[in-house]
Amino acid sequence: MSQNLLSVTKKDNKGFLLLHLSVFIAGFTGVLGRLIELDSAVLVWHRMAWAAALMAMFLIFRKELKRYRFQDICQMGGVGVLLCLHWIFFYASIKASNVSIGVVCFSLVGFFTALFEPVINKHRFSFVEFLFSILTVLGVYLIFHFDTRYRLGIAFGIISSALYALFAIANQHVGKRYEAKNMLFWEMVGGLVVLSAIFPIYNYFLPVEKLLPTGLDYPYMAFMVVVCTIGLCLLQIIVLQKIDAFTANLTYNLEPVYSIIIAMLMFNEYQELNFSFILGIALIIISVVLQTLSKLKAKD
To answer: What is the pLDDT of residues 15-31, one digit of tens each?
Structure first.
């Protein structure tokens, strides 16, 4: 009995360690978006192209690349389009402002999820979750209202968070029918195909000076693709085999905190933050804490 309990405890400890490692890795995504000197759409194109190529090699080597109907591929690819658009606006937000603004706006995902999920999944609307999410909206409004330097970045960040909420809902709905690694591959392919198709229009209205990575862009991009895209996804699959989804989702609320700390250390962003930003992010943290306590109470 004691040996079984000890083995379970070790498994849980390993699961929590891997969980926090995955959150820490996710925190680097925004930082890399600032370091890579590419337009946001070009950056996302390379990220999805590299990830699709590596995933294809991985699945073929392991003989795990499954055949799907064209309709199934379109469904998985459509989810990837939402992810593609989210990434474009997320990196545009960071490049128009800074990493801290981009990840703070990402906190609005809970607000948009509370609005979209009842409509899409035909769930009962939760006024409690909506009220908690309003605190996040007020926090972003304080940053938006008092700090006019970053309004464009905040606008992009708000659109990015809305798109991610749609992606998360669609990914959860569609993902129940497909194997995770194959779905990741077809999501990358779907986003890549659509982005390639619309890029000439994008480039016409927003001319891009640089289409290929140069210098340090290559190692940064490699790290983003191998570690923060493919590695992170596979790590999350392992984590969910050891830790319940409820605990994992709550822990991922720490991702913006990790990103802001990393950005402060690397780019001295604390020098750009004023009282309104601190007050705004305090409201966002309070919102996260209240939502966490509410979910814990509901689970009990």
So the answer is: 778 887 888 888 888 88
> Does residue 236 belong to any structural domain of this protein?
yes
What is the amino acid identity at position 279? Answer: L
In a domain, 22, yes or no: no
**268 falls in which pLDDT band (50, 70, 90)?**
confident
Full-prediction pTM beyond 0.85? Answer: no
The reply to whether 3 falls in a domain is: no
What is the amino acid identity at position 38? Answer: L
Residue 160, C-beta contacts closer than 8 angstroms, at least 6 positions apart: 86, 89, 90, 92, 93, 102, 105, 106
Count how many domains the chain has. 1
Domain range for 238: 36-299
For the CA atoms of 282, 88, 98, 203, the dihedral, rounded to the nearest 10 degrees, stands at -150
The pair of three-digit structure tokens given for residue 140, joined into one six-digit string: 């972003």
CA proximity to 158, closest of 113, 88, 107: 107
First to last CA, the chain: 26
Whether residue 222 is contained in a domain is answered as yes
